[in-house]
Amino acid sequence: MRLALVGQPNCGKSTLFNQVSGYKAETGNFSGTSVTYTASKVRVLGDIVEVVDFPGTYTLSGSNPAEEITLQYLASHDVDVIINVVDASQLTQGLGLSLELLELQRPTVIALNMMDEAARLGMTIDGSKLISFLGTEAVPLVASKGRGVRNLFTTAYRLGSTQKIPDRPKYSKEIEQAVARISDILEPDLLPLNSELLAIKLLEGDQRMTELVSAQDHDVIQLVKRLQQEIEANCGQSAYWVISGERHGLASNIANLVVEQGEKRISWRDRLDDVLLHPVWGYVTLVAIFLVLFELIFGVGSAVEVPLLNLFEKLISSTEHLTASDTLIKQILVGTIQGIAGGVAIVLPYLIPFLVVLGLLEDIGYLPRVAFLMDSLMNQIGLHGKAIVPFILGYGCNVPAVMSTRMLEDKRDRFLAATLATLVPCAARLAVVFGLVAFYLGPRLALLIYIFNLFVIAITGRLLSNMLPEDSPGMILEMPVYRMPTLRSVTRKTWYRAREFIVEAWPLLIIGSIILAVLNYLNYTQFFNTLVRPLTWALGLPVEVGVPLIFGILRKELSLVMLGQAFGTTDFSAVMSSVQMVTFTVFVVFYIPCLATLAILKRELGARDMIVISGLTVIIALLAALAARGLMTVYTI
Fold this sequence. Notes:
The chain is 65% helix and 8% strand. By secondary structure, it is an alpha/beta fold. Helix 13 packs across helix 20 and helix 21 (487-521) packs across helix 25 (557-567). The longest helix is centred in the middle third of the chain and has 40 residues, at 281-320.
């Protein structure tokens, strides 16, 4: 049996998934797209069922890839039950999507999540009335605390076993007549949707469904166009807005009938936004919060890094004393240990605390507030407010950041957002910033590099925006309520993200370390260092950093790990000055994205744009590093 979790953003859907999923949950892409999903096996009433967590979507209108893929998948795949997660405190908005899902004519259960938040707002929801209006089951839930989760999945399992199909919501007489005329001449066996839902989607102007039907029966499309014109003539607006309006009106009426509104309790969370979203104090608080978090990440990382590095230094020393001769096998063994040490002692001590902090900020609900504060900056650099999403994702990894630019409708916005997203220091670059600058020069200077990074991104965005002029609309952003993060949720988010490094990046670190050991043994590193010597000379960097910069294109962590191998020591303060450390770090933060990001850029934007963005990042990195070098030189005088 397969259960699909579908809901709007910030409804707690992923929190629910994390409550029931195991550590073996898998993340993947829907076939032929970059839209991701997460799936896990869950035991329900003695049986193993598959739970698929879909990306958050407000509607099934197909206006963005997440909406389009959700509709396609639900319509054409074996989904036994749809679990529609609804924010009970925003019932009218959530029921709009619920009504669309009921049109699919699949067993559906409504998960009324955040019932505690609804109670805080003085809302009492009559569940029996809601069930009677929708014709399907509705289960109260507080996913963050595990309340109602078992009842939800047992209810969904029983619905899947009986295959009870809810009735489709009915619209006005004119819309229903149009739906009937279209569905009567459709051939449902050849199409993924039932005839009535397909008729509704055609009236709404769904592009993919229109193309699909047009390829089989052009007469149907001609009828749809005539009916759309009739509806617009009679109602004064397009069929899409008529249906959307009726759906919203129906959702609003149901919510009014099932919700009894009491007195709202003003809590500390309401007053907190007065500070965190203040036009002045909001930014002061933002800087203060990130300063504290940087200090915390550095404190934990440095406390773990020093003893681990000492341990591996002793291990390498013991290995080198096993034999006096300098053999290739000995170099490979030492290189392997150095690669393992790079992951354990240099990357993970900073990566894990960073991922924990990121998970906490997500679960608390602070990241959308960061997006709100930064929206004015997005508009200043000529980008749609939605572009803040790739920027936030970029601090975790540039790959999903670039993928998320698909939500932007305009090609110019996608190119600009993807370019700037590759400049955001991801978790891999964080290892370089903290392992080099924060460790040797202090966390405050590391924070200044992040602030400098934002400054460079803003200037770059402004220049590119002037070269590609176009007005970008503002942003309508939904603010989720503050929630108390759970240990279970944060732990699993941290594991899912750290697993990418452990499974994909760490083997590359070890292999790269071995390759560098072999190159050192064969005296080939001089060739590669000479190859990039004009660059390292211009930046005032030691010649030895050439190979680490080249290998850093594979994975950014390699730049730091292989730097220690290139110098023959992990005590970088003995071989690099403070100016060189900052210059090297700033260059690594900006220059050519890692191999995985380059692959995504090519898939999303094409080979030409990928090459253009790569060239731009090298120029930006060079100019930024030179500026940082100059500032550090003045500072240290």
